[in-house]
Amino acid sequence: MERQVYVIMPAFQPEAGLAERVRELGQEIRVRILVIDDGSGPEYEEIFAEAETIEGCLVLRHESNQGKGRALKTGFSFVRSRLSGAEEERAGRRTLILCVDCDGQHYAPDGLRLLKKAAGYPGSLVLGVRSFSEDHVPLRSRAGNRAASWILQKRTGIRIHDTQTGFRAFDSSLLELMCQVPGERFGYETEVLFACARKKIPVLTEEIRTIYIDHNAGSHFRPVRDSLQVLSAFLRGGKQ
């Protein structure tokens, strides 16, 4: 990519492969990678320290767990503070932002495709969407996304079969909005979709590889509590 690119990677109590995932991203895309340690605790410090030894990686830390939404906004705020008055922004060469989960579900070459699509459609949100027809997809992911997709389409007219994907790309013109969207935890990403619908921001999709490691055992998504947060966001329809 010729433009400046930031990768935002929220991480709460990550597995030991975090540094390798950061390294793969850096090899595939010339980026600045921001890993947000969302209050993982001192026993995970070595994992984050290893990631920070990789060129281009910076770890931002929350002293306590604040949730995925807040971790993403910490990254967005950092990028926004670095772009104020930047020459390339004034010239219309907007910086690109890629959001990536830390659990190994996202394939680095797919991230490059998302970024290229975001560059080609300025002011749009690009979602990396998974196929839920494959046998190895966990039932909770398949069923949850079907219900969420139906509600989103009914309320906004936006038809997306993977509303909960954390693999997202956009340019810096959307940073202000991303920082203002309410939500601190998993419901935040749902709130973003409703905010885009209200603001008439195009939401585009790009098919990505579907990767689940040990049936997504590394995910910190809590089926009951976090599903209720996401459902609450859908039922509100993005209203605050």
UniProtKB/TrEMBL annotation:
Q: Which GO terms describe its biological process?
A: protein N-linked glycosylation
Instruction: Tell me the SUPFAM superfamilies matching this sequence.
Output: Nucleotide-diphospho-sugar transferases
Q: Gene3D superfamilies of this UniProt entry?
A: Spore Coat Polysaccharide Biosynthesis Protein SpsA, Chain A
Give the Glycosyltransferase 2-like domain ranges: 7-174
CDD domains, alphabetized:
DPM_DPG-synthase_like
A Pfam family this chain is assigned to:
Glycos_transf_2
Entry's InterPro entries?
Glyco_trans_2-like, Nucleotide-diphossugar_trans
Q: Looking at the record's lineage, which domain of life comes first?
A: Bacteria
- The protein in question is named Glycosyltransferase family 2 protein
Native source organism of the sequence:
Mordavella massiliensis
